[in-house]
């Protein structure tokens, strides 16, 4: 038997909490009215690079990793519009790609200094001491999601960046995606801010607990970083 509307709402409140569940329902309504309308509710988190690998060297040996700094045919299977891929590399982003049998099975995108948000009009500025990078679009193909790849690619990511003096990777998570939030926290991520955006076509409004706190239109710049790191 399908759960009733009230039962579905009750489950949603249990998963998200009352206020986030209410925002989620408003977001669904707005997107039903117009695909260019919606709420974007983000949690910002800072995840420390691990002191030790998560997996022993014998695990995940089927995967290889390569750092991409420009568009390559390997990324065609990622199912992202070519314009989006080009825009990422144009802002200085890099992609740590995981392959198996020469096919793409996962990736972690990251950028230094600042990240130009691609869902709303906003820029996230990292601490100026250079010890943080911004990660986004962490991807694992469905066939590998129950295996070793998720942990293995984070080990490869840490091994790449630790010798460069990086201590944290910072990112934003959709507040409606509790599974992703739990996954980041299991890796030791700490909360470092929130922001709520309302988009109604060309109009955008932002409310955040990070400076500048409130913005009507424009492209606000939010300084995001872990507590205690210079410039956050």
What would you note in describing this structure?
- With 232 residues, the chain is of the alpha+beta class.
- The protein has helices spanning 5-16, 18-33, 82-90, 149-161, 178-186; strands spanning 37-48, 64-68, 94-100, 103-112, 114-116, 123-125, 132-140, 168-174, 190-200, 203-208, 214-216, 221-223.
- The protein is built from 5 helices and 12 strands.
- α1 packs across α2 (18-33).
Number of helices: 5
Q: What structural class do the secondary elements suggest?
A: alpha+beta
Oligomer: single chain
State mean pLDDT (0 to 100 scale).
90
Secondary structure layout:
Elements: H1 5-16, H2 18-33, E1 37-48, E2 64-68, H3 82-90, E3 94-100, E4 103-112, E5 114-116, E6 123-125, E7 132-140, H4 149-161, E8 168-174, H5 178-186, E9 190-200, E10 203-208, E11 214-216, E12 221-223
Parallel strand pairs: 6-12, 7-8
Antiparallel strand pairs: 1-8, 1-9, 2-3, 3-4, 4-7, 5-6, 9-10, 10-11
Helix pairs in contact: 1-2
Can you give keywords for this protein?
232 residues; alpha+beta; 9-stranded mixed sheet; 5 helices; 12 strands
